[in-house]
Amino acid sequence: MDNSSGVGVIDKAVMVLDTLEAGPTSLAQLVAATGLARPTVHRLALALVHHRLVSRDMQGRFVLGRRLVELAAAAGEDRLIASSGPILLSLRDATGESAQVFRRQGDARVCVASAERPVGLRDTIPVGTQLSMKAGSAAQVLLAWEDHERLLEGLKGARFTPTVLAGVRRRGWAQSLGEREPGVASVSAPVRGPSGRVIAAVSISGPIERLTRQPGRIHAEVVVQSAQQLTEALRKSND
């Protein structure tokens, strides 16, 4: 079957990416696998590195880059949002608090779905709100399972510590007390994509007076269950 699109440079770049799907690959291996001239492969690979579609490992071999992960996460966002609605409503009703789903977007986290507490004092976070990755239980969750380099970068100036994130990974959920905003408490748990990577955080938030100073003790179980339901919904939509 002819896989040519008629746009030569794109076809050649895709050949390089297809080869890297098998794992770390040297320049010589890329040349052998694609059948392209060495200067062409080298030029294409470096251009793909520039755009973060390809990266280099410790041995200098070419590997698929993080930009592909980010694009894949964005492609799954519609499924994430569609699946979030009923789960957040159930979580809001079970806890009596506002519920949200956050995704990381660069140096911020963005609310992509929410279910507000209908009456009384509440923490209102409209869809589209961008919040800091340096504070709050959702930020803790979105950072806790990152690779070492991004973890260290994310901890610079953060209101939480490496010990806090270690606890998040151990328990499988996070809590915060006045980290993002004075008087506000929250509990969050990770949502994983089909590959197992953490792609979002399910959260509830509200006044410390209601959630208490140990909100995880009261609400962690139901928040984790909701995150697991969303993880399962995404897995099924990918089947």
From TrEMBL:
Matches recorded under Gene3D superfamilies: 3.30.450.40, Winged helix-like DNA-binding domain superfamily/Winged helix DNA-binding domain
Query: In its UniProt entry, what is this protein called?
Result: IclR family transcriptional regulator
Q: Which residues form the IclR-ED domain?
A: 67-236
- According to the entry, every stretch annotated as the HTH iclR-type domain falls at 7-66
Per the UniProt record, one Pfam family is HTH_IclR
Cell wall biogenesis/degradation as UniProt keyword: no
Q: List the PROSITE patterns hit by this protein, alphabetically.
A: HTH_ICLR, ICLR_ED
Could you give a GO molecular-function term held by this entry?
Answer: DNA binding
Keywords, comma-separated and alphabetical: DNA-binding, Transcription, Transcription regulation
- SMART domains attached here? HTH_ICLR
Gene Ontology biological-process entries = negative regulation of DNA-templated transcription
